[in-house]
UniProtKB/TrEMBL annotation:
CDD domains: PFM_natterin-3-like. Residues 1-21 form the signal peptide. Keywords: Signal. It comes from Grus japonensis (Japanese crane). PANTHER family: AGAP009604-PA, FARNESOIC ACID O-METHYL TRANSFERASE DOMAIN-CONTAINING PROTEIN. It comes from the Eukaryota. It holds the Pfam family DM9. This is Charged multivesicular body protein 2a.
Length: 378
């Protein structure tokens, strides 16, 4: 422990040496080379940008404080040199550095610093919630980064980079990428930068597959409307009553991950409809999606009841039916199309719910004498 702290202090004292240095003479590095020795940094590595990068970072891509285990949807990189999966981490213990979290190597973020590999328990992991963001590794060189490169921390010009030796950091000031190779920090003039695609994208939710084996069905008898019919005469009479009511056949879709609540687009899905004996799926139709989707249809029910009423009698007539509903989980594919021929596809899960009223019929419910009408024979 003491040794490690001493090492850190040493690294801080000799600021002009490693990549983490914040001092030193300006010196244009040789072109097209890499080296075991770090570059002399041409300027202070700390730069307070005019804009906060936090504000530029889309909400689905975020740095999450490491709390003992790999968070869901952590951004990974297959390191083919070390033959292991690495996850992008960043730390501000020595300014701003990015590197690799490797679960098998313990709860540390390993990063290149001061000519060697450093590590810390105090770090963040890059998470792409629901894999919603379209990420890409883009070639660049000499400390440049493309627009929308992923920065390691707010206020620093340190970006997430990699090369064939694994994850590292790109320093704009030092005009190079730094990667740990066999325990040593090495700088490179050519590298790849992690970039998040931004801009308007058309969202389509398609390939909806309902899992009918997990369907949950419900049914309930309902009274749609009631009315009364009276015979105030002294004779039996035939009366015809027309009952009319509107019901709604409803279809709703929702998504399991609440984080997608702000997504707008189009859902391409079949409707679940009741065929008379069971639930069926229709052809696929397009439905607007605004965090969820819903469509409904009004159905008008008209029934005529004819009944012979006794004298001085009032009867209740009701329109009744059965409300059926079904709830089914589904899997689907969410596609974000930026119009650049490289749509970004994400698997998603949700549920669909349909509700319909069937078996609508009208009938006499109950009859009773009209008290306040004197009997005809009085
Ligand atoms: C449907 O759900 C069941 C039960 O959870 C599961 O075993 C099955 O693999 C699912 N089928 C599909 C096609 O997803
Ligand atoms: C469903 O699609 C098929 C083939 O495209 C078509 O023949 C059929 O008429 C459609 N059914 C309905 C109810 O639209």
């Amino acid at each position: 422990m003491v040794t490690r702290e001493l090492l850190f202090i040493a690294a801080l004292l000799f600021l002009s040496r490693g990549s983490g240095g914040a001092d030193g003479a300006a010196e244009t590095p040789a072109v097209g080379v890499m080296g075991r020795r770090s570059l002399q940094p041409p300027a202070a590595s700390r730069s307070f940008s005019r804009r906060k990068r936090d504000e530029e970072t889309p909400s689905y891509l975020k740095w999450v404080t490491f709390e003992g285990k790999l968070p869901d949807d952590a951004v990974s990189n297959w390191n083919n040199y070390a033959k292991r999966m690495e996850y992008v981490c960043s730390t501000s213990v020595l300014g701003c550095d990015t590197g690799a979290y490797v679960p098998d190597r313990g709860p540390f973020c390993f990063f290149p610093y001061g000519e060697q590999e450093e590590s810390t328990r105090n770090f963040k992991v890059l998470v792409n919630v629901g894999n919603f963001e379209a990420l890409d590794w883009v070639d660049d060189s000499f400390g440049s980064v493309p627009e929308n490169a992923v920065a390691g921390c707010p206020f620093f010009d340190t970006f997430v980079g990699r090369n064939r030796y694994g994850l590292g950091k790109i320093s704009k000031e030092q005009r190079a990428a730094f990667v740990v190779v066999d325990g040593e920090e090495v700088w490179y003039k050519w590298y790849q930068v992690l970039v998040v695609k931004k801009g308007l994208a058309d969202v389509t939710i398609s390939h909806v597959r309902y899992n009918m084996s997990r369907a949950v069905e419900g049914r309930e008898d309902v009274t749609l409307m009631k009315t009364t019919v009276r015979n105030e005469g002294c004779q039996r009479v035939w009366k015809a009553v027309t009952l009319e009511e509107v019901t709604e056949t409803e279809h709703n879709w929702g998504i399991d991950r609440r984080v997608f609540a702000t997504v707008h687009g189009v859902l391409q899905a079949a409707l679940l409809t009741f065929s008379g004996t069971g639930w069926d799926v229709t052809n696929v139709t397009n439905i607007p999606w605004v965090g969820g989707a819903s469509t409904s249809k009004y159905v008008v029910h008209i029934r005529v009841v004819e009944e012979e009423l006794q004298p001085w009698t009032t009867c209740t007539v009701a329109l009744e039916g059965r409300r059926l509903d079904i709830r089914v989980p589904f899997t689907a594919q969410l596609t974000r199309d930026f119009g650049d021929g490289q749509p970004h596809r994400v698997a998603m899960t949700g549920w669909a719910r349909s509700q319909v009223v069937v078996g609508v019929r009208a009938g006499i419910k109950e009859c009773r004498p009209i008290d306040d009408v004197p009997p005809c024979w009085v």
